[in-house]
Amino acid sequence: MSEIVVHCTDGEGLPVRARRGLVEPIDARVTRLLGLALPADIGPVSEIGFAAQLGAMAAASKAALASDLACYLRWCEDTRIVPLPAEPENLVRYISMLETRGAKPATVARRVASLATAHALSGLQERGHAPTSHVMVRAALKGLRRRRGAAQRQAAPLRFGASLDPHTKGFTLTALLGACGGDLQGLRDAALLSLGYDAGLRVSELVAVTVAHIDPHSDGSALLFIPSSKTDQEGQGAWGWLSADTMRRVGAWLVASAITEGPVFRRVGVDRRRLRAAVPPMAYEAIPGHTRHWQEKLKGKKAEPARTVYTVGTASLSRQGVNGIYRRVALSAFDQGAGRDADRQSRGGRARVVEPFAARWADAGSVCRRRGRRWHCPGAPLVVAVDGTALWAEACRQEQCCGACTLSHQELKARNRRPHRLGNVVTRLNAYGRLRQQAV
Q1: How far apart are alpha carbons 243 and 245 in whole angstroms?
Q2: CA 310, 314, 315: angle at the middle one, nearest 5?
Q3: Per-residue model confidence as pLDDT tens digits over 113-137
Q4: Considering only CA atoms, which of 310, 428, 297 is closest in space to residue 374?
Q5: In this structure, which long-range contacts are made by residues 230-233, counting pairs with CB atoms below 8 Å and at least 24 apart in sequence?
């Protein structure tokens, strides 16, 4: 008996995840934590200024601020000190506590930066309170980076075809696409991986892709409009190129899921029922007295074929959902013999597009600008192309970039240098052409 496959596109069959209590809005959480941190005799805080500064922050920045404030308030409660305005000596003790608990330098720097934001939101900086800029606080952060090192763990890049080197870790896009099944979930996963690879999208940009953002061309390729991103908070927009192979995968997913508008990548619920054999009717005297469901045995039951129901949601995937897809596909590819055991981790949407271009062009600027990768400067992809550090650094020096390849973000701000900002694909191509003419 063959299996029955049913596709539902109304989203009503998806399981509803129960929320644990009421979810506090992020703005309300930040306001509540700041209210707990400020003393009662601090004086009035400008409501207009507070709302203007809070409205200029992204949702992820507010969530990070709330998390860092909660951590700082717990430490202040344990040590019985006044949270705000903070004293430089107390901040040095706070940094030492975070180091003792094993926090990395990047985490400690972010928590200190959140305290600077808290002072600005509450108007304390205007009153002369800027403890995070004190020389002893900066020295404590510098000493922490010196002791622990400032290098961060970077996920291995994802390359398109075969490995560039047999000893280089990481998966290839071909291996991950081969690990995607032929069912509805597999079609979605293959389209998501291929589109994210072509356009070099972050996870937050992937979940925001809609059908209206894709502009197909007659040769089978397409342009993808990216309305906003992490580096484009004001929504100037950018364009990314999609290959014909990617468009075939996206088209197969859209046709199978019957999506004509709205978000492209959505949840797919799977309900599988096993094959159930027929139950012949039994005589009443032959049924044991302690048997459950005796009426079913008395009347018998028809055979039921295997049944699989796929339910497509109406809302876009969450960022956590995309990370789960990366991880699941990577584990499936690993089980099929691709990659190494250390590579069983989810892949970022940006770190996977650099190394193949670094292997083809010994020019950081061309990788930065090619196909709308939207990096600020030629030195930015250096953190991904680990094997070509010296070559890329030399290319950055030749192109006189902003120096982000050798300077940390804090040092970059301290030296008052602005990264190169390229608005759209035309600007990138023009800049790339000028660089090539200068090289000639």
Answers
A1: 5
A2: 120
A3: 999 999 999 988 877 778 999 999 9
A4: 428
A5: 230/202, 230/204, 231/374, 231/376, 232/374, 233/58
